[in-house]
Amino acid sequence: MFAGHFAVGLALKSRYRNVPTWALLFATQLCDGLWIILSWLDKEHFRLFFTPSGVLRLDLYDAAYSHSLFWSAFYALVVFLLFVRAEGQRHWAVPLSLAVFSHWFLDWLIVAPSLPFANFGPAVKFGAGLGEIFPLADLLLEAVIVLAGWRVYDRSISSARSRTRWGILAVLIVALLSPRLLQRLL
């Protein structure tokens, strides 16, 4: 899920208008940003594979620091504490921490039980596995999340900014479809 994370940021923007959109969008992708850095440093690992139906999947088989329940909640708490104490930006604390933690929840909806509790403690894995039900389940769910997030955002902005709102929808659609188009090319 990629565009769905951004859609949550836009939905949060509709409720918390004083928080910059860029900050909310960045917060929704914090876990993936950490995953990229940790993978590059060889601290976390992943593999790409094709399912029997020919769908390219990403398996985060070792992502305990970036995508575990404990560390996702910890990052959300750290973001909250950083901003709740920041003069002039206290009102950013709740929406940014919600955006950070929303990443884990959306990933939980899609992946099979593979999200760890933490890099310590019980070896429990989480995931509802909706993306495993049938090949297009993750695309359909993400499309619903994208459209819902955009609709909530769209209703909150003025109609005078129509080019901006349609531009944001176009970007979300490209982000939603680009992994699928890349998959077709591979």
What does this structure look like?
With 186 residues, this protein is mainly alpha-helical. It has one domain (3-181). 61% of the residues lie in helices and 9% in strands. The chain has helices at residues 3-15, 21-28, 30-40, 69-84, 93-110, 130-133, 137-156, 162-185, and strands at 45-50, 56-62, 115-116, 125-126. The strands form 2 sheets. A two-stranded antiparallel sheet has the order 1-2. The chain has a two-stranded antiparallel ribbon with strand order 3-4. The longest helix is centred in the C-terminal third of the chain and has 24 residues, at 162-185. It is globular. The two termini are 19 Å apart.
Topology, please?
Elements: H1 3-15, H2 21-28, H3 30-40, E1 45-50, E2 56-62, H4 69-84, H5 93-110, E3 115-116, E4 125-126, H6 130-133, H7 137-156, H8 162-185
Antiparallel strand pairs: 1-2, 3-4
Helix pairs in contact: 1-2, 1-5, 1-7, 1-8, 2-5, 4-5, 7-8
Level of helix content?
55-70%
Provide a count of the helices: 8
The main β sheet shows up as:
2 strands, antiparallel
* Strand content bin: 5-15%
Give the C-alpha Rg: 17 Å
Largest sheet: spatial strand order: 1-2
State the total count of DSSP E strands. Answer: 4
Indicate the low-confidence ranges by residue numbers: none
What is the succession of H and E elements?
A: HHHEEHHEEHHH
Summarize the structure.
With 186 residues, this protein is mainly alpha-helical.
